[in-house]
Predict the structure.
Amino acid sequence: MASDESAAAPISTESFRANRPEIVGPESPQKPFPIHLSGAVQHGFGRGGKDLGCPTANLPDESMTPMSSVTEAGVYYGYAQVSREKNGQVILPEEDGRVHPMVMSLGTNPFYKNKNMSAEIHIMHDFKADFYGHPMKAIVLGYIRPQLDYTSREALIEDIETDKRVALRSLARPAYAAYRADRFFDLNNMAS
Ligand code: ADP
Ligand code: MG
C-alpha cells in the first residue's frame, strides 16, 4: 500500500503488475458505456507523454462532460478518430484519419503531482506528425484499472504497455469491435 501519505492513489505493486488479466470487462459494453467524446486537441502539460513513449492527446474540459457518469479515476479503453483536416485544409494522410484503438487515462496523474482532473487519450497508431488543433472523436467502451501511483518510471511504463495490450485484446471481441464502424465516426475522413 501507499507509503507516502500524500499520495492520491495506491501504488502499483510488483504483484499487481504480474497478475493483471489480459482481457477486461463483460462480453459487450455495459452502462455507462459507450461514452461519446469530441473536441479539438489541445496542448497538455508537455510532459509524461512523448518521453514515456506514449503521447496523449488532451481534449478541452468542456468536452469531458459526458465522462461525468464515470467517477473512478483510472485507465479506460475504446476507439478514437482524428480529423485529417485543420481549419478546412487536409493535413494528415488517409491512414491517420481512420478509427484506431485507444487507451484513455482519467485522473490526476499522481506521478506528476498534478492536481487537476484530466483525460488524455493515447491512440494506438503511429502518426507521422502532431495533430494539435485537429477535431478528435472518441468512444469509451470500458474500464481497465484504477489510477495508481508509481515509485519508478519503469513500473509506470510496464503498466502502460500492459494497458495497451489489454485494450487491444478487449476490443477484439465482436461487440466492441463493432464500434469501429459506428456512425458517430466520420467515414468521409477515411476516404483517400
Ligand atoms: P501534451 O502534454 O501537449 O499532451 P504529449 O507528449 O502528451 O504532449 O503529446 C501529445 C500530442 O502528440 C498530441 O496532442 C498529438 O498532437 C501528438 N500525438 C502523436 N501521436 C499520438 C498518438 N499516437 N496518440 C496521441 N497523441 C499523439
Ligand atoms: Mg498529453
